[in-house]
Design brief:
Layout: E1 4-7, H1 9-13, H2 19-25, H3 30-41, H4 47-57, H5 63-72, H6 79-88, E2 92-100, H7 101-104, E3 114-118, H8 137-151, E4 158-162, H9 168-173, E5 176-180, H10 184-187, E6 192-194, H11 199-204
Parallel strand pairs: 1-2, 1-4, 2-3, 4-5, 5-6
Length: 210
């Protein structure tokens, strides 16, 4: 039976940072976005409000800024090697993240079968962000279920990789999980824990786990 590997983005595939912070760095707004990341993680406001605030910060954002942020971000090493190996084994890999879709979807070019993020308007923005398209921890599970149907697998065939409270619902829903450079709120829910900067090493922990 094939397996589906589900990867978080912020703090997981990206080491010690988030896509919004890397995007904001291109506009000189890194400090403001780090504070927004802290506040939403602390539960001071919800993901739709976070999306609205970063959308406002990014009034001058261009596609060139996004491309530069993506190319220069501190990615874990060997992401593409892991995804190539997963494909060679006849398994599936997908990224599910609360970060903006226009950033997350670029990872299909690295070999992910699917990449889902919070739905933002096209860059440069001419429309507001739609709060109904902003993902949550619970939405990650719904997307995972949809991907299971798409690829002909079940939750029992899934492996989740994440680092924070946005991954708690998904970790509770699947049998195998890897807490990657995670905070203490997630490590207790994971079946495996990894600290480091090489995705292959995290993947090897669960390469054959069921």
């Amino acid at each position: 039976m094939a397996r589906l590997h589900l990867f978080d983005l912020d703090g997981t595939l990206l080491y010690g940072t988030s896509a919004p912070v890397e995007i904001s760095r291109q506009l000189g707004l890194e400090r403001e976005t780090v504070e927004l990341d802290r506040a939403v993680s602390a539960g001071e406001f919800d993901p739709p409000e976070y999306a609205r605030r970063v959308h406002t910060l990014w009034a001058r954002l261009t596609e060139a800024h996004v491309a530069t942020a993506f190319e220069g971000a501190p990615w874990l090493s060997r992401i593409q090697d892991v995804w190539a190996e997963i494909r060679e084994r006849g398994d599936y890999c997908a990224v599910v993240s609360l970060s903006p879709s226009f950033f997350v979807e670029r990872l299909t070019g690295w070999g992910a079968h699917a990449a889902h993020g919070s739905r933002f308007p096209a860059v440069p923005f001419t429309e507001p962000v739609d709060p109904t398209g902003v993902l949550s921890a619970a939405a990650k599970v719904m997307i995972a279920d949809r991907l299971c149907r798409q690829f002909g697998v079940t939750r029992a065939d899934c492996v989740a990789y994440g680092d924070s409270t946005s991954d708690t619902d998904l970790f509770a829903a699947v049998p195998v999980s890897v807490a990657v450079n995670a905070d203490h709120r997630l490590t207790g829910l994971a079946t495996h824990t990894y600290e480091g900067k090489d995705l292959w090493d995290a993947y090897e922990l669960v390469r054959d786990a069921r």
